[in-house]
């Protein structure tokens, strides 16, 4: 039943996650998803992701498909359609954490867990980003919630739906979803493992396994599944932050609730035997996720995102112990949500009027003139979002390393009109190719008081390199 407190939670969540969702320009990794989706639509090949001229199998295909489906209802691929799956996954995560808290403890704990998660700034940030990370988090939470609801009913339906949720989630970011789901439910499974040892467990796992395998059977790439999910864990080839990165990251990801964590931890350490089984379950699960992610040799700060709902549940359980705590928590939650709403609905749209990629595109297009569509776009070590904004649906941008001058020269010889895009800090690397060429500078979105030299060095410059027309041969 949708009570007034739940309605307030879900309404606030929808407003915070959807307000002005398409206003902000694409940010770093979003450009990869945008370009891959656009190439899928352009070529009609939805099984083989490509980023510019290269195959790109770092992630399975489901997140791209979801963005493309959303584009059917938003007038084409744009910032709104690219981010809508993440926002929807964020809403699903709020529902699941509220439902899980209510199932494990009581209604008040469930509502508190929903508010704690929603008021975490980094959760909202990633729920408004076009990527697979919140899809991964929401899918894991959905599987854990389904398990909690059905753990006393070990039927084929229970296991089949659980497997399908895990299989679909694994198609967003990889088999890490399956590993984390198992780690989270394992502390509870071991307390009643005998009821799960039955034929339905193995039969119910088959639909999920088939769902995960289907895109790879049709399009290939099983070797990349092994590389990205197993080799990367034990012998990383990139993303090699130190093992303690998550101890530094967690306090940031849990703001504004970071100050509560010592009290939550102290309660768990000193009152372990008197805690409810649900509290001990979430404590073991949180520790398991932290250890599993830290042991991996491939680490990035946002990889730890799936632990945030677990700590939100533990925080909510602590808050529910005292009436005064709950009242203070409500005030903190509403204040945090209000600040974030002002930021996404006012500050970001205002900043977009000052500069950024949309204005940069308009300036470049004006400089190119009426022949805009005849220009090729080359990114010289620039982020993929530049290709998204300066390319167009019928023509892909190219990407060349700024450290490969031979390839740059060869491309310029073969293409009479080329827009070279490079960061300001790398201008010296292309000086020999752009002498005397018109150039367009990206304008900063930041107010003058916030400008920093390091930020300015990351802004883009576009050079319009045009090969002189061949002189007519004398008769």
Shape: globular
**Uncertain segments:** 469-475
Rg computed from alpha carbons, rounded to a whole number of angstroms: 25 Å
Number of domains: 2
Largest sheet: number of strands, sense, barrel closure: 5 strands, mixed
Report the strand count: 7
Structural notes for this entry:
The protein is of the alpha/beta class. It has 2 domains: 4-348, no CATH class; 357-466. The chain is 61% helix and 6% strand. It is built from 21 helices and 7 strands. The chain has helices at 4-18, 29-43, 62-71, 79-104, 107-118, 121-127, 133-150, 156-173, 176-189, 199-219, 222-234, 245-253, 261-270, 277-295, 307-319, 323-352, 357-368, 384-390, 405-414, 431-434, 453-458; strands at 50-51, 54-55, 376-380, 398-400, 417-423, 439-441, 460-466. It has a 5-stranded mixed beta sheet, sandwiched between helices. It has a two-stranded antiparallel ribbon with strand order 1-2. Helix 2 (29-43) packs across helix 18 (384-390) and helix 7 runs antiparallel to helix 8 (156-173). It starts with a helix and ends in a 9-residue tail after the last strand. The relative contact order is 0.11.
Task: Write a short abstract of this structure.
By secondary structure, the chain is an alpha/beta fold. The protein contains 21 helices and 7 strands.
């Amino acid at each position: 039943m949708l009570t007034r407190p739940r309605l307030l939670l879900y309404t606030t969540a929808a407003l915070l996650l959807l307000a002005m969702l398409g206003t902000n320009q694409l940010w770093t990794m979003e450009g990869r998803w945008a370009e891959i989706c656009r190439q899928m639509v352009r070529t009609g090949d939805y099984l083989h992701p490509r980023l510019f001229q290269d195959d790109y199998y770092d992630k399975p295909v489901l997140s791209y498909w979801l963005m493309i489906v959303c584009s059917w209802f938003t007038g084409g691929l744009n910032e709104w359609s690219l981010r809508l799956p993440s926002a929807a996954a964020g809403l699903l995560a709020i529902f699941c954490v509220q439902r899980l808290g209510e199932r494990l403890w009581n209604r008040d704990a469930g509502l508190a867990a929903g508010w704690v998660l929603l008021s975490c700034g980094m959760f909202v940030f990633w729920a408004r980003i076009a990527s697979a990370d919140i899809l991964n988090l929401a899918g894991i939470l959905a599987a854990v919630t389904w398990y909690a609801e059905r753990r006393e009913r070990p039927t084929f339906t229970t296991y089949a739906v659980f497997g399908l949720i895990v299989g679909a989630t694994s198609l967003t970011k990889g088999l890490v979803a399956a590993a984390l789901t198992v780690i989270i439910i394992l502390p509870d499974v071991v307390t009643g493992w005998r009821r799960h040892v039955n034929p339905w467990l193995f039969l119910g796992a088959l639909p999920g396994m088939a769902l995960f395998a289907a895109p790879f059977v049709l399009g290939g790439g099983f070797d990349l599944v092994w590389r990205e999910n197993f080799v990367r864990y034990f012998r990383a080839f990139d993303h090699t932050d130190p093992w303690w990165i998550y101890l530094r990251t967690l306090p940031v990801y849990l703001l504004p609730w970071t100050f509560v964590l010592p009290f939550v931890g102290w309660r768990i350490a000193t009152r372990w035997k008197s805690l409810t089984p649900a509290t001990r379950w979430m404590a073991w699960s949180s520790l398991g996720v932290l250890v599993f992610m830290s042991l991996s040799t491939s680490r990035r700060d946002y990889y730890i995102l799936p632990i945030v709902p677990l700590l939100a549940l533990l925080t909510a359980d602590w808050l529910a112990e005292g009436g005064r705590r709950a009242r203070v928590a409500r005030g903190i939650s509403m204040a945090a949500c209000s600040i974030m709403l002002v930021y996404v609905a006012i500050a970001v749209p205002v900043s977009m009027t000052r500069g950024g990629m949309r204005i940069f595109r308009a300036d470049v297009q004006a400089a190119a003139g009426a022949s805009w569509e005849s220009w090729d776009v080359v990114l010289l070590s620039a982020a993929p979002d530049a290709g998204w904004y300066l390319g167009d649906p019928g023509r892909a941008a190219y990407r060349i390393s700024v450290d490969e001058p031979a390839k740059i020269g060869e491309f310029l010889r073969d293409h009479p009109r080329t827009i070279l895009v490079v960061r300001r800090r790398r201008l010296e690397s292309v000086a020999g190719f752009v002498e005397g060429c018109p150039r367009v500078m990206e304008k900063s979105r930041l107010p003058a008081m916030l400008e920093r030299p390091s930020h300015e060095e990351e802004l883009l410059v576009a050079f319009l390199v045009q090969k002189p027309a061949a002189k007519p041969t004398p008769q």
